[in-house]
Design goal:
The complex is a heterodimer of chains A (about 100) and B (about 650). With about 100 residues, chain A is an all-alpha fold. Chain A is built from 3 helices and no strands. Chain B has a two-stranded antiparallel ribbon with strand order 1-2. Chain B has a two-stranded antiparallel sheet with strand order 3-4. In chain B, strand 1 and strand 2 form a beta hairpin. Classes of the chains: A mainly alpha (about 100), B mainly alpha (about 650).
Chain lengths: ~100, ~650
């Protein structure tokens, strides 16, 4: 018996909302970063789901792209966070607000 | 040669460009003078060629159009850069290039050593270019190009010695005055042009004049067109009420006064009215206005000329007065007589100014005739040519001025009434008087100049032009001998211009049923008045100078009135200039500009400033806040999309 497509999508939507909530509410930059990864992966899950249900390989192909970009982004993002920590001795993003009026 | 007529316009422009762009580098006065005079000289030869060619054509084919290119084609408006060669424009072209050439040559001597020699000749050439456009144009727009162009050159040349003092102001003030007063007239001219376009749907001379008799036009429209065009003419040709700029225009170098402010530019108004004769003939009421204004201008300017002491000022008022005669002629429908006077006046008035320039030159820039006297033995050529011109302007037969002035006076009676003739004839007496006052005070009697001055005859390059003009002033009238004397052939000049004015003449339907004996009586009367004027001047200024001073004391009020030129300048100052200046300063500047305009601009800026001072608080610098806004935005957008599905 096959699991219906709605189940996958609900899980994926839930993961996305958790990611958004994490980005908006957490102070620690690394956690914010992880939440971004969560959102990316929820999008990946959606694409895999549709690819599987529609019998098309395009979705899977896109997921590879997303994973590649996510890996590169993670490397750069972490590097930025380290650089920031060296300067301000904190990774709390609400303390890093020098670009204001 | 007719097809080459565009060269008469182009060559002065080329001369202007060469001297204007490279004159500073050329430096050599001879080369600059040669280029400038050469351009005009060749133009003159081409005009003569075109004239001879036209002469060979039958009278009905003497009008040709040289169409160069389309200038503008917008909607129904189609303006060509086209020149019209006909009897009238040829006469004017010959006057402008001929007298212009002579004055160019004279200027080589007169302007010798001036630091801006090249600039002077560049402007002169530009002037001829504009003037030729004005007289050869075959439509109102091209005419207006020349019309404005000569105004510009007049301004540039009046203020040529821009650092020189002139009376209570500087020469550039005089230039500005000329330009502004001219602009007032030009505004009228423009309105006239608009009205013509609105009424006749074209600005081409041939089309407009052809439609005058065909289109059903209200009389008031004709009156308005005519009065607007005439306002333009009063500005350019220095008639009441816009004549005030011309006496001040004497601030320019004397050859400029001769060329622009006596011989050519100021006659542009006369030319324009003659060109549009059919329109004016359709508005007889306005013709009467023109005649009255011309008569009054002739008279009042002549009376002012009686007492002035500046040699150029006397000549300036004399010019205004003679222009008044021309308008008087136009006003009574004697268009060809007006143009005839334009021609003879160009000869003798240019000669008078050039002679005056020669005198001023030898008196070291002193222009007060009270400081002259007895100059004849030092500068005989100038004196004799000046005498010829004075006789001509006074209307002594058989010099040119006699024929043209007599023609005007006779027509003013035959087509008009005794009032025009009376004032005109009395003005002729005044003319003879002030001209010979000038002549006697300058060239005869005892010398009154200081020991530091050594009067001397001017160089040949200046005296030969004087002699050429003297010959023209003497014999120029013979082409217009009245029908009374010439018998069968009639007046040659009038006959030549007849095709141009025949429609206007037919419309006015003037027929003089006056006998020849009447004409002779009037002629003799005007000769007697002219001779009388000369004799009175001789009596007062040669025999009994005391009369002049005692008359001055006796009629002190009148003398003051004339000496101050009827206070016209002062009246304009208090009624027009000062109110405008005051309103400009206290209202337009200090309220409209400083308060309203600046206030609006600064107000907008300060509103933006205070609003943004509050709004920029949104820019917190916290990335999560931006992300929240973004998310909310996306959610809202998604909601809107989903709900609208």
């Amino acid at each position: 018996m096959q699991i219906p497509i709605e189940y996958y999508l609900i899980v994926s939507a839930f993961m996305f909302v958790v990611g958004v909530a994490g980005v908006l509410t957490r102070r620690n930059a690394i956690v914010v970063f992880m939440s971004v990864e969560l959102m990316l992966n929820s999008a990946n899950l959606t694409m895999i789901t549709f690819a599987s249900f529609m019998g098309s390989s395009v979705g899977q192909l896109f997921v590879f792209f997303v994973m590649t970009v996510a890996a590169a982004e993670a490397a750069i993002g972490l590097a930025i966070i380290i650089a920031m920590f060296r300067n301000k001795l904190t990774v709390n993003i609400d303390e890093i607000n020098i670009l204001k009026w | 040669m007719i097809q080459l007529i565009y060269l008469t316009v182009l060559l002065p422009l080329v001369g202007f460009l060469i001297n204007g762009l490279f004159g500073n580098k050329i430096k050599n006065e001879k080369i600059i003078g040669l280029i400038a005079s050469g351009a005009i000289g060749i133009s003159f030869l081409i005009s003569v060629g075109a004239f001879i060619e036209t002469l060979g054509l039958p009278a009905e084919h003497r009008k040709s159009i040289v169409d160069l290119f389309t200038w503008m084609n917008v909607g129904g408006l189609n303006i060509h850069f086209a020149y019209q060669v006909d009897q009238l424009s040829l006469i004017m072209a010959l006057i402008v290039t001929g007298v212009g050439f002579i004055i160019h040559v004279y200027s080589i001597g007169y302007m010798h050593g001036d630091k801006s020699f090249w600039r002077f000749f560049a402007y002169l050439n530009l002037f001829i270019f504009a003037m030729m456009n004005l007289i050869l144009a075959d439509n109102f727009v091209l005419l207006f190009l020349g019309w404005e162009g000569v105004g510009l050159c007049s301004y540039l040349l009046i203020g040529f010695w821009y650092d020189k003092k002139f009376e209570k102001m500087t020469t550039s003030d005089a230039g500005k005055k000329a330009f502004i007063v001219n602009r007032i007239g030009d505004f009228g001219f423009l309105l006239g042009m608009f009205l013509i376009y609105m009424t006749f749907g074209s600005l081409n001379f041939g089309e407009v004049f052809g439609r005058v008799g065909i289109f059903n036009v209200d009389q008031n429209v004709f009156n308005f067109i005519a009065i607007f065009l005439f306002i333009g003419a009063t500005g350019k040709s220095a008639q009441i009420p816009l004549f005030v700029w011309l006496p001040d225009a004497m601030a320019g170098p004397t050859p400029v006064s001769a060329l622009i402010h006596a011989a050519t530019m100021v006659t542009a108004g006369v030319y324009m009215v003659a060109r549009c004769s059919i329109i004016f003939a359709s508005a007889p009421a306005i013709l009467t206005v023109i005649a009255v204004i011309g008569t009054l201008t002739a008279f009042f300017a002549a009376t002012v000329g009686l007492v002035q002491n500046d040699i150029k000022k006397v000549l300036a008022y004399s010019t205004v007065s003679q222009l008044g005669y021309m308008f008087m002629a136009l006003g009574v429908g004697a268009f060809s007589a007006g143009i005839f006077h334009v021609m003879t006046h160009a000869f003798f008035k240019a000669l008078l100014f050039l002679g005056a320039g020669s005198v001023i030159h030898s008196m070291h820039e002193d222009q007060d005739i009270q400081n002259y006297g007895g100059l004849r033995k030092h500068m005989p050529k100038t004196a004799i040519t000046f005498l010829v011109a004075s006789l001509a302007i006074s209307g002594i037969p058989p010099l040119s001025g006699f024929f043209s002035k007599d023609e005007i006076l006779w027509k003013s009676y035959a087509n008009g009434n005794l009032f025009y003739w009376g004032v005109g004839a009395f003005t002729a007496l005044l003319t003879a008087f002030y001209m010979f006052r000038l002549y006697f005070l300058t060239f005869e009697g005892k010398s009154r100049y200081g020991k530091d001055k050594h009067p001397h005859e001017s160089p040949k390059v200046m005296t030969i032009p004087l002699m050429v003009l003297a010959v023209l002033s003497a014999i120029g009238g013979f082409i217009g001998i009245p029908a009374l004397f010439s018998g069968e052939g009639g007046n040659v000049f009038e006959h030549w211009l007849e095709p141009v004015f025949k429609n206007a003449d037919a419309r006015l339907a003037l027929y003089s049923a006056h006998s020849h004996s009447q004409e002779i009586i009037f002629m003799v009367a005007s000769i007697i008045l002219a001779v009388g004027g000369i004799l009175i001047a001789r009596h007062i200024y040669m025999k009994k100078p005391s009369i002049a001073s005692s008359a001055m004391k006796k009629f002190k009020g009148l003398y003051n009135l004339l000496w101050n030129k009827y206070f016209v300048d002062e009246v304009y100052d208090t009624t027009v200039v000062t109110p405008i200046l005051k309103t400009s300063e206290s209202f337009l500047w200090k309220i409209t500009d400083a308060k309203i305009i600046d206030g609006a601009v600064n107000g907008v800026a300060s509103v933006v400033n205070s609003v943004s001072k509050n709004i920029r608080k949104m820019q917190t610098g916290v990335a999560q806040f931006y992300a929240l806004i973004m998310t909310l935005g996306i959610v809202a957008a998604l909601f809107w999309i989903i709900l609208s599905l």
